[in-house]
Design the sequence.
């Protein structure tokens, strides 16, 4: 019941934040203009990527917190917090050295930036580095919130974060100064405020009090686990930011703007899928600590279906009506932006299916082989895209590569899961989830094509955004769930209604 409550809370929280964040993008684009927004996306993309890396590392440390909580080991909880803080301090220093040397050289000499905007761009770049540093320092406190399953606290703090960014975006449209530089300093100040709030709330947990620890075994475990998890997150960030840079080099700031809009949609859908799986994660890890493999397998099946069918119901109408949505959202939409946004929704919906697999493998602690195999495939995206661009391929080729790599990497993830978690069966995954998901997607898409023939504006809107999701939900309930899962959902519905 607690999982259902947390999942519902996180889902509606993310719907609210998605609306806020998308409107924020509209204001930022209006305040910066197309050229400066393209520069921001290419140079300061680390700002948006920082949240992803911080979230991944927070979930990694949360894994250790959850296992210690499941075992009732209070002393180990405090040692985990202190050791993770020490590791993150070292990581912050290494990050500053790397970005202020090699990174600074690359931005100054290798990227396509109008000469008159170079000084402002470098100012933005330095601010972005410290926004990233603040997000790293926030990690242990976020992990403590996750492991204690206080999703209400996380919902409040993350909502404040989004509202502050919305306020900043509104301000840059009216200030009488360089908007790009102002936005960079504003993001830095906002990140500092949010760090302070997470630290203040985190200190209320008994484990979040720093003490000197010399537990070498714990350091090795944290470094080994977090190191490989960091490798995984950096590979994903490298693919996104690397592709941003490639588009900048081959096609310039306008195409960068289109890719930046697609990345904003990616962030919204990615955050939505991550928020849904957050409610399953602590329960799955604690169940593994108690050797309750049957419950883990049950949660794995339910989380896969919940993730994909929810994203299908939300994403399919948006994908089909993307041109209209972008015009309402941004006031303008060229064909490249519409195509990028549509392909990004497909990519993120497939990518979301990795989350339940990753949770189980991280619960086992056997992450080295998993990340080596999977991220080696992920990193192929950049050289393949570069080769295609050099041979004259269009800008959207990057998404074709990303989709192909995503599918291959998912197959590799399933192979790693089978090696690590013996109860998993390919046949059960295929028959119980994959084949029904393909069928439901095809039937929903066919329904959407029929609805698209309706030309009356109001009726068209009702069919696409109200009736189509209902059809997808009905198909998911009938064809996507087994008898036990349908009975469980009906039981929860009647219990909540009573």
Sequence:
């Amino acid at each position: 019941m607690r999982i259902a409550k947390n999942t519902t809370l996180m889902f509606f929280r993310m719907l609210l934040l998605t609306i806020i964040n998308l409107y924020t993008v509209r204001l930022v684009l209006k305040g910066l203009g197309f050229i400066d927004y393209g520069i921001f996306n290419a140079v300061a993309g680390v700002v948006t990527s920082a949240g992803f890396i911080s979230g991944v590392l927070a979930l990694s440390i949360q894994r250790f917190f959850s296992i210690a909580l499941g075992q009732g080991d209070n002393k180990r909880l405090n040692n985990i917090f202190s050791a993770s803080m020490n590791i993150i301090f070292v990581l912050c220093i290494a990050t500053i050295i790397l970005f202020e040397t090699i990174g600074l050289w690359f931005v100054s000499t290798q990227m396509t930036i109008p000469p008159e905007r170079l000084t402002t761009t470098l100012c933005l770049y330095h601010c972005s580095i410290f926004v990233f540093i603040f997000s790293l320092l926030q990690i242990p406190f976020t992990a403590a919130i996750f492991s204690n399953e206080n999703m209400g606290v996380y919902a409040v703090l993350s909502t404040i974060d989004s509202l502050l960014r919305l306020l900043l975006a509104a301000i840059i449209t009216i200030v009488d100064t360089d908007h790009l530089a102002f936005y960079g300093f504003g993001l830095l100040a906002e990140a500092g405020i949010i760090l302070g709030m997470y630290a203040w709330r985190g200190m209320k947990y008994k484990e979040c009090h720093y003490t000197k620890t010399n537990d070498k075994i714990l350091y090795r475990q944290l470094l080994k686990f977090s190191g490989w998890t960091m490798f995984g997150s950096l590979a994903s960030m490298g693919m996104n930011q690397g592709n941003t840079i490639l588009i900048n080099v081959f096609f310039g700031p306008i195409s960068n703007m289109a890719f930046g809009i697609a990345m904003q949609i990616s962030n919204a859908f990615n955050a939505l899928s991550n928020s849904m799986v957050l409610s399953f994660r602590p329960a799955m890890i604690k169940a593994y600590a108690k050797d309750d493999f049957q419950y883990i397998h049950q949660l794995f099946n339910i989380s896969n279906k919940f993730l994909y069918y929810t994203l299908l119901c939300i994403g399919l109408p948006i994908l089909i009506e993307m041109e209209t949505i972008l015009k309402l959202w941004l006031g303008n939409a060229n064909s490249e932006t519409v195509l990028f946004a549509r392909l990004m929704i497909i990519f993120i919906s497939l990518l979301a299916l990795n989350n339940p697999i990753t949770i189980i493998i991280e619960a086992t602690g056997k992450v080295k082989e998993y990340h080596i195999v999977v991220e080696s495939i992920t990193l192929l995206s950049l050289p393949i895209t570069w080769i295609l661009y050099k041979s004259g391929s269009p800008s959207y080729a990057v998404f074709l590569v990303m989709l192909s790599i995503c599918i291959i990497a998912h197959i590799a993830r399933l192979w790693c899961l089978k090696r690590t978690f013996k109860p998993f069966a390919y046949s059960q995954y295929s028959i119980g989830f994959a084949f029904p998901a393909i069928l439901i997607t095809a039937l929903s898409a066919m329904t959407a094509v029929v609805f698209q023939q309706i030309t009356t504006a109001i009726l068209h809107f009702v069919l696409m955004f109200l009736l189509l999701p209902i059809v997808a939900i009905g198909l998911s309930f009938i064809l996507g769930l087994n008898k036990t899962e349908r009975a469980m959902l009906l039981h929860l519905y009647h219990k909540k209604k009573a």
In short: The chain has a mean pLDDT of 82. Residues 2-424 form one domain.
